[in-house]
């Protein structure tokens, strides 16, 4: 009967649009059709439902692959959204309850958007089963938005489950939820139930839930903001609940509940203007506006369990409650600045379910149980009570004039007036605002002021954006004397880049007189001595081969200004699809020699053109890739050709500071119908087929997914961004922030590289000085082995931003002076004070912007260096305690050397001396990744390297270990083995001299012979000194970190136990292999003692995963010397005291005086601290 009724309503009352959407008829195959589409279409598939159509489903619709989407065609937000009706059978209290399920094993990134879910409980008792919508599980980055979910048969409208505590980063936004359940005893239902960590719940409207409006089941790191919860026809137990112990054991650390509006019941009787309260026909109240702690809800049921670590700020309450905010059995919570607005009352009395032995506090705005709430920061108007157990047992009064007059959020007016927050009024049971008429007047005035202020701000923002765009265009224009000719020949006059820089400087300093977030430290010109050392610095950089030739320094801007690069005007041989649009590109060495004056300059130009020729070939491959994917998606030949595709460069090449052999960071921009899976499956194969392409390897699991390759000997790193455009025009610019609309976070991060580079060049006062300074710092960081984002140090973007900041602080300084100040200011920097090139912009889009006040993860960044392009991100989120210590030491050592250079007692070459990593520690960890295939090894080693930082972070928690120092690269070995024992030894990192000298020809035709490809990574271990008077060796138990690391790496979806090896073992410095040293660098090996039987250094890390305890030395294992579980070590006490964790790693650093700026210069200006 129900099916026929719904079918009739769908067919007769609702107009249906079936173009490009999946129809509801025939309804007897509906469930199978929808689920088959999701199962067979793979990752990225969008299941479009028809607007104004009801889908009567008998079973749940199941997401089946990553990044799939279920949505209504055209993305409407009103009642024309498609309606999925839960209509399956029910028997004996169980049956069909769930419409959509996104908890499959591989449902990361799935999206449910712009649909309606009707659970069809219809006043019946609840059914055992799931929520209307079940999402989460062992997945991340899921999205639910613009969904209307209501009347669930089960316990919730929307449930984001925790998985095995590995659900992460779900977003629930802009949904309208409810009504849900009945306020009859145990027939309740939640609005939103969130158990997924690091998630975001915002801008949702939740009407008439009955159990919890928003229920947080722990979900550490989650942010709940700008939601509105209100009731009209039923009683609600809790508005926002932070009471559940399971599944996160009461862990609410990092949870922030802020700026939410919770409106209880209002009077339903007419307001005659003579009273502030009236009656409510349904006796509607919210029993607890915000409930904190399990005892608040469950009484003593969970014994001594507590809720720990949340923050509740700036929430507003209005209407009728029993308790506004109630806290019991909570620790380390912060509850501040929550307030009452409009008319409120606090009403209720003990009900039959209240414990007879415990008193129940009188209704009030803010109540706190002082007996079991500890270490909390709370606002001053909380009332202390001695019992806060089971407060939901209270009942509203059966009638009477107790309900305040007011409005609900579903009306056109706000739920509460815009009057100022009113403080709670003592321990009384009610609170009332001044009066309705006064409130309206104040509200109108405040509203007008707000609109005027908003209009002024929008106008100012628009003017600033327009000015910024003009500045960018001016900065990118070719200076006078440069000529652009696309095709045939190129002539270029070698104007000095100083002219370019000065013109940019003039444009960029007109608005406020300086670049950056603070005024400069000094605007003085460099001294004659600083100019001299700048000259010697440039000579040293040439000797160090940082330019592609000795003359490239004065031509470093050449590549940037060539318009013939990366366009369809390249003639790409063997291309068949784009011959109609291709042009030709030739150049003449004699013409270049004549134009540039020296043959060496033509040599430089040849090098530049060689790189750009490769880029041109890549550009054509990208277009061909988009073309073929477009055809596979059903586009016509014409549409596929028009789909386009374009590449942009970024990184050192875009900044003009690339060196011989450096890679080219390349962004591939594709239209919306090309998926990331296409990029790693189709484009990667096409790239491998390019003539001269080698070492093509994709790492899709990386924080920024990447494909690495070499083409004609030039290394390239490819990122992909899929824009929400049907085609990519050849003249596309990435500067428009609106291009970021509807992109996932990986695409936003990928676009960031090119956008950030352009913004950096726009924000430095002198481009030539900046480039020279950056070349120096990059070379220094590489030589000192601290240039690696993946291993927890700084990457290229971070170093570029740091140098740009110093250039802003000294706009008229030479490169030598910039480098000198760089080390001093960076050593003195007050981390975690962020390094900014400009103020962070919130921007027009709903994308995450770095904000430590909002996001707990951002607060954890140790050395935040923030990208200047919108949306602002932290380029150094990978930094660990160990790598921060190492970088800080290097800043100090660099400052000391440069200070000596300035006074003439040292040379620049000393700054660029090679690191001493393999001489620095007595103990090291070897992480050895091995396979039998060269291609597989590239991917496997890349995966292992991307997880090394996680091992370092786990090692930092081990007792007696001061620091874990990862080396910035791995060492590749190819070993030709003829026995299985040799294969095993190589995989364990033990390569004999016989195997090392054997060639591929030596094993040809030998039965059982094989080749092993291995990559070895190293981590130096700094162990705290042995206490005085201590005797015998000590044990260092690092079995847990190494075992957990091994498990983490082997979770890679392409891991194959039979073909991929992973070994983690400890090794003494005396046993380091020769390949880690340069020729002549290694000191003579010491004579090693013969190891005891069975206790060699070759044991792997596959040991017991017992948790390490920071202070349980008696639990150290007793294995033999040099094995992972119970690593033996001996050390002599250092003179003096180890000054905490951040003691200098190298004792020689203690002898270096703290670097200081010249007199009259104050580093505090850089952070605005002065």
Automatic annotation (TrEMBL):
This is polynucleotide adenylyltransferase. Its EC number is 2.7.7.19. Residues 916-1085 form the Poly(A) polymerase RNA-binding domain. Gene3D superfamilies: 1.10.1410.10, Beta Polymerase, domain 2, Poly(A) polymerase predicted RNA binding domain, Single-stranded right-handed beta-helix, Pectin lyase-like. One of its GO terms (cellular component) is nucleus. Pfam families: Beta_helix, PAP_central, PAP_NTPase, PAP_RNA-bind. Its cofactor is Mg(2+); Mn(2+). GO terms for molecular function: ATP binding; metal ion binding; poly(A) RNA polymerase activity; RNA binding.
